């Protein structure tokens, strides 16, 4: 059986205010969520790490495979009215949040769709809840706030107004990001950059992202 509740995604309305996005709670089926978390790769640094740098196994490996599969893509294409067939995907994995993370941004232009899957078992902190923002300069002006737990899925279409960010949080915060990007060159360049910043962080754990 699929780890993902594709039926729930199918039944979710994609919103268009303030930009195109959708949220699905329990997108990872609650009955398999603990098993996926158990196989989440151990991570020591803050920042985004490409899967190639991590030990990917078991239910976590299955999860990445399903996210990269044709059913999930078809639903995202349908929800956002896009043909993604010629675009490569790129994954990054996070285990910890640094207090400087979460500053308001739109994501880079090379990303077409951003997918976030939140992998914490619970979330009690006020910080670290991603906000779908109405502007680039006010973290309090948001359409929705997404607590990063329980296999919640957030998908948005990147644009010059896809503003998002969160209040500062420092500590464990697991999230998978997947993007459809404009070309394979982007994947290569980005993943090289992630590997490089990870090496720097190992030398100086206090270096900014
Ligand atoms: O982890 C999140 O909630 C959002 C991360 C994000 O916006 C990014 O990495 O571009
Ligand atoms: Fe982002």
What would your notes on this structure say?
The chain is an alpha+beta fold. The chain has a single domain (6-201), classed as Jelly Rolls, CATH 2.60.120.620. The chain has 5 helices and 8 strands, in the order H-E-H-H-H-E-E-E-E-E-E-E-H. The protein has helices at residues 6-10, 30-38, 58-67, 70-80, 184-203; strands spanning 21-24, 89-97, 111-118, 130-133, 142-146, 153-157, 164-165, 171-181. It has a 5-stranded antiparallel beta sheet, covered by helices on one side. Strands 5-4-7 form a 3-stranded antiparallel beta sheet, with no helix packed on it. A hairpin with an 8-residue loop joins strand 4 (130-133) and strand 5. Helix 2 (30-38) packs across helix 3. The longest helix is centred in the C-terminal third of the chain and has 20 residues, at 184-203. It is globular. The termini are far apart. Fe (ii) ion binds next to loops. Belongs to the iron/ascorbate-dependent oxidoreductase family. Keywords: Iron, Metal-binding, Oxidoreductase. It comes from Tepidicaulis marinus.
């Amino acid at each position: 059986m699929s780890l993902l509740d594709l039926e729930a995604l199918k039944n979710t309305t994609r919103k268009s205010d303030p930009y195109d996005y959708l949220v699905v709670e329990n997108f990872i089926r609650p009955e398999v969520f603990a098993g996926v978390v158990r196989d989440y790769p151990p991570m020591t640094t803050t920042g985004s790490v490409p899967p190639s740098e991590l030990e990917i196994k078991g239910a976590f490996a299955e999860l990445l495979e399903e996210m990269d599969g044709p059913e999930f893509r078809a639903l995202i294409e349908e929800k956002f009215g896009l043909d993604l067939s010629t675009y490569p995907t790129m994954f990054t994995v996070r285990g910890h949040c640094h207090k400087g993370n979460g500053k308001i941004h739109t994501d880079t232009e090379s990303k077409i769709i951003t997918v976030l899957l939140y992998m914490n078992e619970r979330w009690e902190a006020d910080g670290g809840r991603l906000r779908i923002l109405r502007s680039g300069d006010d973290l309090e002006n948001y359409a929705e706030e997404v607590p990063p737990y329980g296999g919640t899925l957030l998908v948005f279409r990147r644009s010059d107004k896809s503003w998002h960010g969160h209040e500062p949080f420092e500590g464990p915060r697991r999230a998978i990001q997947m993007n459809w990007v404009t070309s394979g060159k982007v994947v290569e360049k980005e993943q090289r950059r992630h590997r490089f910043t990870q090496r720097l962080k190992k030398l100086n754990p206090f270096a900014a992202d």
